[in-house]
Amino acid sequence: MSKALRILAMGLAWIMLAGGAWAEDTGERVPALALPEPENGEFAVLTAEEDPMIGPHAEGYILDEEGKTTGYRDPSITVNTGKGRIYNTNYAYARVKIADANQIRTTMTSESLSGVKTVPGSTLAERVRAVTAVNGVLEADVSSGGNVAFVDGPVVRQRVWKRPGPKTSEAKVENWKTKPALDTLVIDMAGDLVILEGETWGEIMDQVQAMGDSAVNVITFGPALVVDGAARYGYTSRQMSTHKPAQRMAICQTGPLEYLLITSEGPENTGSKGLTLEKFTELVASFPEVQTAYNLDGGTSSTLVFRKGDDFWAKINSPGGKIRPLRDLIYFADAWIPDEPPAPEAEETGAETEGTGAETEAPSGEEQP
Q1: In whole angstroms, what is the distance from residue 151 CA to residue 182 CA?
Q2: Minimal CA–CA distance to 96: which of 271, 313, 297, 260?
Q3: Residue (of 83, 20, 30) closest to 265 by Cα position
Q4: What is the pLDDT of residues 141-186, one digit of tens each?
Q5: What is the pLDDT of residues 180-226, one digit of tens each?
Q6: pLDDT at 332 exceeding the cut of 70
Q7: What is the dihedral angle through the alpha carbons of 55, 56, 57, 61, rounded to the nearest 10 degrees?
Q8: Which residues are within 8 A (CB) of 232 and not within 5 positions of it... i.e. 6 or more apart?
Q9: Secondary structure of the chain as H, E, C letters
Q10: Angle, vertex CA 152, rays to CA 104 and CA 326, nearest 5
C-alpha cells in the first residue's frame, strides 16, 4: 500500500471511529406510554392561572423488577424514563404525555424577577407537586447581588408578563426593543412548543403580543435545536460555551401533548466527557419523533426531577455531580383525582348477633347478673 493510500485509510478509520460513537448508544429507546382509560375518579379543572396541585399519586408509579421507578401512569399523565450513552457521555430522558394543555407549566421561586432566590430543583418541584420537571433558564444578575434574574428578552409566566413589567418605563422598553434577539420559546394554550425568531427583541415582542392569551409561557434562552423536524447546527456563542463539552438540557415536542425531556452529563460526572452543543443537537435529533426542540440552561443547572427511591421529587440525572439551585422550572402537573377508597365495613359484634338491647334487659325491679 502506498503512503498516500495509508494516510487515506488512516483518515477514513479516524472518521469512522469519531462518527461511530453512535454505536455506543446501546440503550433501548423507551416509547411514550399511552394514557389509560379514566375510571374510578375524575379530571381536575386546571387553568393557565391556577394549578390545584393534586398529585402525584403513589399508586401511579411504575417499578421495575428491582423496585426502581421507571415511569408514572394515570389517566391524565404518563412518564417513561430511559437512558443511553453517546460520544463517551451518559444521557437520560423522560417521555411525557398529558391529557390537558394546562398540565405543562412553569414556576419561579418568586412572583417577581427582582426576588428570585435559588432553591434546589427538587424543592421547587415538590412545592408545585410536579410529576416531573426540568430546570428553566433564569440566571442571576451578579450586579444585583444574585437575587435579580438576568434575562435578555420578554418573559411571560402562566400568561403574566414579567418582563417588561407594568412599572417598566416606556423609554427603557423602547431601548431594549432595539437589541439583538435570541430564539424564543413560546408554550401556547394548546400545549405546543412554538419557536419565535427575529432580529431584535422588539420583533419578538410584537410576535408574542400578536399571539395574545395563546402565549401562556415565553422563555428566552435557546437556541432552537430542532424546528419542524429539522435539526439546526452552527450556532455559536462564547457565553454558552457551545464548543465546550458540558452538561446539556432540552425540552422537545414529539406530538400533540407529547414531550421529550433530555439531558446529558458533563466532564464533572464520572465516566462522561460531556457534549458540545452540536453533538447534543445530534443526540436530540436522533429521536425521530422530535418536531421541536429548545435548548435550556445547561452545566450544573441541568436538572431532571422525578421519583427516586421513596422520594417523589429528586434529581435523577448526572449522579454524583454538583447540584446547582434553580430559580425556575418547567414542569408537568397531575390532573387526575382518584376516588376515595370505600371505608371498611364495621365488624359484627357478639351482642349484635345475639339480639337487641331490649331483648336482653332484665325485668323491672330485678338486678342484672
Answers
A1: 11
A2: 260
A3: 83
A4: 544 454 545 667 899 999 999 988 777 888 888 988 999 999 999 9
A5: 999 999 999 999 999 999 999 999 999 999 999 999 999 999 999 99
A6: yes
A7: 160
A8: 223, 224, 225, 226, 281
A9: CCHHHHHHHHHHHHHHHHHHHHHHCCCCCCCCCCCCCCCCEEECCCCCCCCCCCCCCHHHEEECCCCCEEEEEECCEEEEEEEEEECCEEEEEEEEEECCHHHEEEEECCCCHHHCCCECHHHHHHHCCCCEEEECCCEECHHHCCCCEECCCCEEECCEEEECCCCCCHHHHHHHHCCECCCEEEEECCCCEEEECCCEHHHHHHHHHHHHHHEEEEEECCCEEEECCEECCCCCCCCCCCCCCECEEEEEEEECCEEEEEEECCCCCCCCCCECHHHHHHHHHCCCCCCEEEECCCHHHCCEEEEECCEEEEECCCCCCCCCCECEEEEECCCEEECCCCCCCCCCCHHHHHCCHHHHCCCCCCCCC
A10: 50
The residue written with cell numbers 444585583 in the block is 144
Amino acid at 351: A
